[in-house]
TrEMBL record:
Residues 203-224 have a biased composition (Low complexity). Keywords: Exonuclease, Hydrolase, Magnesium, Metal-binding, Mitochondrion, mRNA processing, Nuclease, Phosphoprotein, Transit peptide. This is 2',5'-phosphodiesterase 12. It catalyses: Exonucleolytic cleavage of poly(A) to 5'-AMP.
């Protein structure tokens, strides 16, 4: 009889041995079906464990049991479930036996006595071929490598194998655009998991050589599906896939062991793509990830769905844009393809809906080696992604401008100046704009750190003085992070600043000061005047210069977006050319069927001095 106290060291040895199985051995065992599997999920922070297995009658059982419960009670419950399953199967068999056959007679099972009434099957749990004592608690009894026996059927117990907690395909799939499934993996990671893509077999198409998918295993996709030959996490459909649905067969893993496989099919067939997009030519400059000496940086306002899907947007702001091209499912395909095609090391995004961040951007960019952080504003927010092979996240120092201005001693002097102008102060403190600040550390050289800031300043055309105040708060906060908290680390400051190069905000950033008589202090009239002089100590430059425009809509075009860099530590290696004016205006203005936002992405390669 196996009992817990004398076997803990043996358990560790067995658990280690089980986890050392190679990938091929794990898959082979699954295919061969040598032993059924009983999956146990047991997490210390939760009071119950879950047990999942298939009975001989084909029914699948999912049980929740207290971790502190004696094993005997759990085994008794399993026996009861098995008996019910047996009875149900017997009833089904009897019903079939008495069903009239094709000639109108009654089907006969042949000679022989009726089977005896079912009795409760013997249910035991074994570890190393010894029965586990029934007074052992569930938390200790259900160990990896144990064997559960229900009647004549044996199950290999797998405790906390890798498992998908979430698995979802995009609703709208287009030819030529990457399909990035949304994954959640417990006790594993996507990099250690297995993927295989299938597409529907066209009517009348010949089966592939070797018997097709049905030759793989009993759990392989059923006939009617053809292998695409792609066994990676991301699949990009071709024009040949148009009109066909996709299927993904995936097995969660952690590099050493694998959990139960799952399959999911796309809801809709692959649609035709829009043809050439505004960013296709730009991707010719960004085919590969840069070497370690460079930092490819992207700043992009991707147009929040909360703003694109309004009647005002459809009829006033973007009446020239086809309605379907404003829909989120459509635009997400373009955004994913554009961003992944830049092979960037840093991506700073504005107007990011929370669900777009979690359901679209994270799955897509994670599949291409990037990790991201998100900061909500009100209805949308900011996202910063960084390449995991180059950077790790050290710390975050996000602020809400109006909160920091009122509560942080850093801004005491600025707040005192602003308090002299109550009307202006009230307007400034009403704004919800935020600043996202992330400190990253090089994975190759731990002494190399960088401060990455990302913001979206107040939008109103008459809000020049508000943007000046917001920028003063931003630069003071960034100085605190990059000088006080992490002395002398360089700064990259990206964003949609809603300011053209002729404005006071841009002058302030580039020159380091703004005089109190600048016209932007009265940007909303004399009533909200707030004259003051401001300075900052940074030496900043717009890495992409001053393009004619980064925002192009029906009623306005101008340069509103910038990547400001610290000239003391960084220099520009190359700027990726913006789309041509002809490309931007092919469909009159932005957004369009070939461009997902009303802004253009800024992309440049930076290098350390």
């Amino acid at each position: 009889m196996w009992r817990l106290p004398g076997a803990r060291s043996a358990l560790r040895v067995v658990r280690t041995a089980v986890e050392r199985h190679s990938r091929a051995e794990a898959v082979t065992e699954t295919v061969a079906g040598a032993m059924e599997r009983a999956v146990v999920r047991c997490v210390p922070s939760e009071p119950k464990l879950s047990l999942s297995f298939a009975l001989a009658d084909g029914s699948h059982k999912n049980m929740q049991r207290d971790q502190s419960e004696p094993l005997g009670r759990a085994l008794s419950r399993i026996a009861t479930n098995a008996l019910k399953g047996h009875a149900k199967a017997a009833a089904t068999k009897k019903s079939r036996k008495n069903r009239p056959n094709a000639s109108g007679g009654v089907s006969c099972a042949g000679p022989g006595p009726e089977p005896a009434a079912a009795c409760e099957p013997v249910v035991k749990l074994y570890y190393r071929e010894e029965a586990v004592a029934e007074d052992v608690l569930n938390v200790d009894a259900w160990q990896d490598g144990a064997v559960l026996q229900i009647g004549d059927v044996k199950y290999k117990v797998e405790r906390n194998p890798p498992a998908f907690t979430e698995l979802q395909l995009p609703r709208y799939i287009m030819a030529g655009f990457p399909v990035c499934p949304k994954l959640g993996v417990e006790f594993g990671d996507p990099a250690g998991s297995l993927f295989r893509w299938y597409k529907e077999t066209k009517p009348g198409a010949a089966e592939p050589e070797g018997g097709g998918p049905s030759s793989l295993s009993p759990s392989s996709p059923s006939p009617g599906w053809t292998e695409t030959g792609v066994d990676e996490r991301v699949y990009t459909p071709s024009n040949a896939d148009i009109g066909l649905r996709l299927k993904l067969h995936c097995t969660p893993g952690n590099g050493q062991r694998f959990g139960p496989s799952r399959e999911l099919e796309s809801v809709c067939p692959v649609e035709a793509g829009p043809g050439t997009c505004t960013f296709d030519h730009r991707h010719l400059y960004t085919k590969k990830v840069t070497d370690d000496a460079l930092i490819r940086t992207v700043s992009y306002n991707i147009l929040a769905d909360t703003y694109a899907q309004t009647e005002f947007s459809r009829t006033v702001l973007y009446p020239y844009c086809a309605p379907y091209a404003l829909e989120l499912d459509y635009r997400q395909n373009l955004i994913q393809k554009e961003l992944t095609g830049y092979n960037a090391d840093l991506i700073c995004l504005q107007e990011v809906d929370r669900n777009v961040f979690t359901d679209s951007l994270v799955p897509a960019l994670e599949a291409f080696g990037l990790e991201g952080v998100f900061r909500i504003k009100q209805h949308e927010g900011l996202a910063t992604f960084y390449r995991k092979s180059k950077f790790s996240l050290l710390s975050q120092h996000d602020i809400v401008f109006h909160e920091a201005l009122q509560s942080d001693p850093l801004h005491k002097e600025l707040l005192e100046k602003l308090a002299l102008y109550p009307s202006a102060q009230e307007r400034v403190l009403q704004r919800s704009s935020v600043l996202q600040v992330s400190v990253l550390q090089s994975t190759k050289d731990s002494s190399q750190k960088i401060c990455v800031a990302n913001t979206h300043l107040y939008w109103h055309p008459k809000g020049g003085y508000i943007r000046l105040i917001q920028m003063a708060v931003a630069l003071a906060h960034i100085r605190h992070v990059s000088c006080d908290l992490y002395p002398s680390i360089p700064v990259i400051f990206c964003g949609d600043f809603n300011s053209t190069p002729s404005t006071g905000m841009y002058h302030f950033v580039i020159s380091g000061n703004i005089p109190e008589d600048h016209e932007d202090w009265t940007s909303n009239g004399e009533e909200e005047r707030c004259n003051m002089s401001l300075t900052h100590f940074f030496k900043l430059k717009s890495a992409c210069g001053e393009p004619a425009y980064t925002n192009y809509v029906g009623g306005f075009h101008g340069c509103l977006d910038y990547i400001f860099i610290d000239l003391n530590a960084l220099e520009v290696e190359q700027v990726i050319p913006l789309p041509t004016h002809e490309e931007v205006t092919t469909h009159q203005a932005l957004p369009s069927v070939s461009h997902p936002s009303d802004h253009l992405a800024l992309v440049c390669d930076l290098k350390w001095k």
